[in-house]
Specification:
The complex is a heterodimer of chains A (about 725) and B (about 170).
Chain A: H1 4-30, H2 35-54, H3 58-77, H4 84-106, H5 116-132, H6 141-152, E1 191-199, H7 206-217, E2 223-227, H8 236-244, E3 246-252, H9 256-264, E4 269-277, H10 289-298, H11 309-312, H12 336-357, H13 368-392, E5 393-395, H14 397-414, E6 418-423, E7 428-430, H15 431-452, H16 456-461, E8 468-477, E9 480-487, H17 494-504, H18 516-520, H19 544-553, E10 557-563, E11 567-575, E12 580-588, E13 591-596, E14 600-604, E15 611-613, E16 619-623, E17 626-632, H20 633-636, E18 650-656, E19 659-665, E20 667-675, H21 681-684, E21 692-697, E22 703-707, H22 709-717
Parallel strand pairs in A: 6-8, 13-22, 17-19
Antiparallel strand pairs in A: 1-3, 1-4, 2-3, 5-7, 8-9, 9-11, 10-11, 12-13, 12-20, 14-18, 15-16, 16-17, 18-19, 21-22
Chain B: H1 2-13, E1 17-23, E2 26-31, E3 35-40, E4 54-60, E5 63-69, H2 70-73, E6 86-92, E7 95-101, E8 103-109, E9 115-116, E10 129-135, E11 138-143, H3 145-148, H4 156-169
Parallel strand pairs in B: 2-11, 5-7
Antiparallel strand pairs in B: 1-2, 1-8, 3-6, 4-5, 6-7, 9-10, 10-11
Chain lengths: ~725, ~170
């Protein structure tokens, strides 16, 4: 696991990268960058640059710097000719680069890939763009900007303004630190210094380096102020530092030599001036306690790297703009494992509640008040459970928007035209599901564009709009989320699929008996591809089988429908949540079993002679004209003392996929919300083919084994 | 860092301390540091397709843990459970397992000098015995709890750690 600081850095940078990608894609669609977009991108790049430099990831920060320059240029000089596509490419390339570096960092490596190529390309591009727009390619934008400002202010140089301006008081977030005496030298052998740091000309990013100096120093001094005050936020700061040096005022117990040694370590240091004064009153710049207090209030967001990592987890979710008491201030970022823990506890509570209210000691007692109170408890517990579940729910939006990028990249490379329409992206699913759905969706969307959408001329010939459409939609339906990927392409070629299936030898029954859906589902078989040529995106036949296995692991299913010439639709159905399910518990002898309720189609007591045997001894029953196999649980799990006579027991009719089968148990115990717990590994590795997928605790504290109808089905039918 | 230090101290105070329990006529000992707690025998849920010595799973305050009958584990005839029967819950590399024994006796300190390796008998089951401790006139068979999980499940921890890393990687 990475260090907390690094972790936060990765987290924030990733958020910015996602944001950048979205803005860039959106701008390209609109054919240009709105002022707001430019500002957003500029800000995001600026922040990445700053924090990457703080973490000493120079490759990342310099790349961010070069991209930032482009947007700085656009923002300041508002050039006429802006090639939105080319700029989007640059931004996306930079985003990709940084993303890879973040991955590396996350895996415990160092982001050391050289960004020089990208950087040079970006610089050249900017140069050309400046020339195209008739500007001097070597123009120093920051100077231009400051000059403008100076004009407005009546010709004054943008020198640091006195007190009134906001400043950061480093250390404001540490209340434990004793407040220094307002006037005069603070007690003890404190020394007051005034230092000016000059950076080497051309070292670039002076403001970030200045920030580094502050960061190094603040651990060793009692109180520290500096000019310019807002080094990272104010773009003119760079210029000020460049021309007038970076000025530090601080109180410390270090001697002058120690201070000098400390500051001498600064990278790219050109010149250092240190002056010791008698007390803070003699300093040119020393804000009073009141100013500090006011500023601390005004700065709703404390300076970032100041905060201890633990606290970071609770800070308002990273946003590009410090929230001004708006909705952003209401957000907190919480570690997922804390939520998991909470979820576990709520699960325990659900069980504990049942243990109390269904306690055998209470049996047969008249307890009016108790049941009233118990009902109330049940209601509150239910609400609590729902709220905790809701905490883990995240909208599919992020995952859906990622698909934009895929469609864009693919259409560009394949020479096709397609747009992605998102519907219902605010639908919420469990965080786990959201994470696991991303890969399958990507494969399906890729497939739709690669195999589904035709080339523009083919589309026009077929009387369709030149630009194809892929609709990605999500909706809640009962306890499930239904995600559909619909394209208006050529549809699946049934003949081709059949032919391929024949070749691969995966036909399970005579061709004439196959339904359309069954034929289409062959595309999910491993190694299946009807495409002759392998492209960068698809055709290798890997992928679609991953889709199915991923979705199955989430307890979901995939269905493909297609109409020749009109396109195909892939439907994914997944349960909303995995942790708590509704289950029907049954007893067999002394054992308890639980079956997820959505698999049970009905339960009944079989009539005398309803169950019959075939010559092999396999039992079956006629239900609604269909013949269904029957398994006796006591037989399957070797349980003594169970009811052997079907007419005394109960038959659960289970549905797994297309097949139905009966399971014979002794008695129904009732429906209950159950918390799925894995079977201990020690045991689960000994039992492989038992049809048991987990266990749960019942109200009386006993353990019930959860039956997975799908697995039982496989046992019966193989 | 501090955790490590604490752990070290913790382990130090637990050094040479063994929980002794009876199984038939013998007295066995198990390192106190792996013992989580001792509970009375309780309702065991049987699970299918496991070796006979794995009696099933029990609910330990919401945690589900497997229990192993030590008589059967040592390939001896099983014994009826009584109210003396105990389950010793041990934690080996974060795997919790309950050992069903005839009864627990006490916690003993057996200094290293009183511990001797077992004789190298081919026919014996002493692969489960790490060493033998001398206490006055009697002896205590000290369990090698790592091997308890084995023959076929020796690889359990390797497997599991491999699984965990692969899970992290994905």
């Amino acid at each position: 696991m990475a260090e907390p600081m690094v972790e936060v850095f990765i987290f924030e940078t990733r958020q910015f990268l996602e944001q950048l990608e979205q803005i860039a894609l959106g701008s390209e669609e609109q054919g240009g960058f709105s002022e707001e977009d430019v500002n957003e991108i500029f800000r995001a790049m600026h922040t990445i640059k700053g924090s990457a430099a703080m973490m000493m990831f120079d490759q990342v920060s310099t790349l961010a710097h070069s991209v930032e320059d482009i947007f700085f240029y656009i923002r300041e000089l508002k050039p006429q000719k802006v090639d939105a596509t080319a700029i989007t490419d640059i931004v996306l390339n930079a985003v990709d680069f940084m993303r890879i570096e973040m991955e590396k960092l996350d895996a415990g490596g160092t982001p050391d890939m050289s960004s020089e190529e990208l950087r040079n390309y970006t610089k050249d591009f900017l140069r050309n763009m400046k020339l195209d727009n008739g500007h001097d390619p070597d123009i120093d934008l920051r100077k231009v900007k400051n000059a403008k400002k100076a004009d407005g202010a009546g010709g004054d140089a943008p020198a640091p303004e006195p007190e009134k301006k906001q400043q950061y008081y480093i250390g404001a977030a540490k209340p434990s630190k004793p407040a220094p005496v307002e006037e005069g030298t603070p007690k003890g052998a404190k020394h007051v210094f005034e230092a000016t740091v000059f950076f080497q000309p051309g070292c670039e990013m002076e403001e970030v380096r200045a920030f580094g100096v502050v960061n190094n120093l603040k651990e060793k001094v009692t109180e520290l102020h500096y000019l310019p005050e807002k080094i990272l936020e104010d773009e003119s700061a760079t210029d000020t530092i460049r021309n007038m040096g970076f000025r530090l005022f601080f109180v410390t117990d270090m001697e002058k030599d120690a201070v000098k040694a400390e500051l001498d370590q600064t990278i790219f240091l050109e010149k250092l001036e240190i002056k010791e004064v008698a007390n803070v009153g003699e300093l040119e710049y020393w804000p009073s306690q009141e100013t500090i207090a006011i500023t601390a209030l005004e700065n709703s967001e404390p300076i970032k790297p100041e905060m201890p990592p633990v606290q970071r987890d609770l800070t308002p979710a990273a946003r590009p703009v410090p929230a001004k008491g708006g909705e952003g201030a209401q957000m907190i970022t919480v570690r997922v494992d804390k939520l998991d823990k909470l979820m576990d506890l709520v699960g325990e509570m659900v069980i504990a509640e049942a243990m109390v209210t269904q306690n055998p000691d209470l049996k047969g007692m008249e307890l009016d008040n108790f049941s009233k109170a118990a009902r109330q408890l049940h209601k509150i517990n239910g609400e609590l459970q729902d709220s905790v579940m809701a905490l883990r729910m995240v909208p599919l939006e992020g995952t859906f928007k990622k698909m934009n990028r895929i469609v864009r990249d693919m259409t560009k490379k394949l020479g096709k035209k397609a747009r992605l329409v998102l519907v219902g992206e605010s639908t919420e699913v469990d965080k786990n599901i959201n994470e696991h759905i991303s890969d399958p969706l990507m494969h399906i969307v890729r497939n739709s564009v690669d195999h589904g959408i035709e080339m523009p001329d083919v589309r026009v010939d077929a009387g369709k709009e030149e630009t194809g459409t892929v609709i990605l939609s999500a909706e809640n339906a009962g306890g499930e989320v239904v995600i559909k990927i619909k394209d208006d392409g050529g549809g699946l070629n049934k003949e081709k699929i059949l032919e391929r299936a024949r070749k691969n030898g995966i036909l399970t029954k005579p061709e004439s008996e196959l339904t359309d859906r069954e034929i289409y589902s062959f595309i999910f078989a491993p190694g299946f591809s009807t495409k002759e040529a392998v492209t960068e995106f698809s055709g290798r036949g890997v992928g679609m089988d991953v889709v199915v296995s991923n979705i199955k692991s989430l307890g979901g299913k995939v269905i493909v429908d297609s109409e020749p010439g009109l396109g195909s639709t892939t439907t994914i159905k997944i349960p909303l949540t995995l942790a708590i399910i509704e289950g029907m518990s049954v007893s067999v002898g002394g054992s308890r079993f639980t079956v997820p309720i959505n698999y049970i189609s009905r339960s009944f007591r079989p009539e005398e002679g309803a169950i019959f045997k075939d010559p092999d001894g396999s039992e079956m029953i006629m239900v609604q004209g269909n013949c269904c196999p029957v398994v006796r649980l006591y037989d399957m799990y070797d349980i003594p003392d169970a009811i052997h006579e079907p007419t005394d027991g109960i038959l659960l009719l289970l549905e797994a996929g297309e097949a139905r089968f009966g399971v014979l148990a002794d008695e129904l115990l009732g429906v209950q919300e159950i918390v799925v717990k894995p079977v201990p590994k020690y045991i689960s590795r000994m039992m492989k083919t038992t049809g048991i997928s987990g266990c749960t605790l019942l109200g009386d504290g006993s353990i019930s084994l959860i039956i997975d109808p799908q697995q039982v089905h496989n046992i019966i039918f193989d | 860092m501090e955790d490590d230090k604490l752990l070290m101290e913790d382990e130090d105070t637990q050094k040479d301390k063994y929980l002794t329990f009876t199984l038939g006529n013998e007295v066995y000992g198990i390192d106190i540091k792996v013992v989580i707690e001792i509970i009375g025998i309780q309702k065991i849920t049987v699970v299918p397709e496991v070796p006979e010595y794995v009696k099933g799973i029990i609910n330990l305050r919401g945690k589900i843990i497997p229990v192993v009958d030590m008589h059967l584990r040592f390939r001896r005839p099983g014994k009826e459970y009584s109210d003396r029967t105990c389950v010793i819950v041990i934690d080996v590399n974060d795997v919790l397992i309950g050992l069903i024994v005839d009864g627990v006796s006490e916690v003993l300190t057996i200094p290293e000098k009183n511990v001797v390796p077992p004789p190298d008998l081919k026919a014996s089951q002493n692969k489960y015995i790490r060493s033998i401790g001398k206490i006055g006139e009697g002896v205590v068979l000290l369990l090698d709890w790592m091997k308890l999980f084995s023959e076929d499940d020796q690889s359990l921890f390797d497997d599991m750690s491999a699984e965990e890393t692969s899970e992290e990687a994905t």
